[in-house]
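To: structure desk
From: M.T.
Subject: fold request, one chain
Message: Could you run this one when you get a chance? Sequence is below, nothing fancy, just the single chain.
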Amino acid sequence: MGRPVHFELGVQDPQRAADFYAKTFGWKTEKWEGPVEYWLITTGEQGTPGIDGAFEVREDGQPATVNVLDVQDIDDALMKIEANGGSIESGKSPVPGVGWVAYAKDTEGNHFGMMQSDPSVS
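Reply: Done. Structure tokens follow.
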């Protein structure tokens, strides 16, 4: 159904952002050990309303908030985005041990991401 399951906040200094959100809202952060600088955010206890997210280091310095939607078939979602007037910002890419990710814009210019879960992706 394409529910939001994750968010990304674009930051220049992830440690500074982590400190701000920890002191302000009690969020917990952990640097991801993947191939890009990405800090995972836990916003609350498991089983309570809300979603978790991440800080994504943005070299262009532009702030951004991106909602990531869960999709069953990322290839199908990409096809539907273009068929319905949206545009692809970055196509299907692997996230090792997690699945597939892609980014797009809707008809109004809003950026969003999609994630297809597949732990076998390497």
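Reply (cont.): Residues 60 and 108 are 22 Å apart (CA to CA). Let me know if you need anything else for the meeting.
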